[in-house]
Prior knowledge:
alpha+beta, about 15% helix, four-stranded mixed sheet
Amino acid sequence: xxxxxxxxxxxxxxxxxxxxxxxxxxxxxxxxxxxxxxxxxxxxxxxxxxxxxxxxxxxxxxxxxxxxxxxxxxxx
Length: 76
């Protein structure tokens, strides 16, 4: 499963002092000419992610698949 996300800037983590981001829009990537599907409503867009890896793990949990089955990329 390939997902594309649009990053929104967020706050620094009070725990790790690292930059975080929020997902502005989440789409399932199009395959072979198909249109993308907006899935933003399936996640909490107010959550502050620390990394794309963390987002990938959250999506895997949400869809009930292994994290290895999920790929994410930032939409340019």
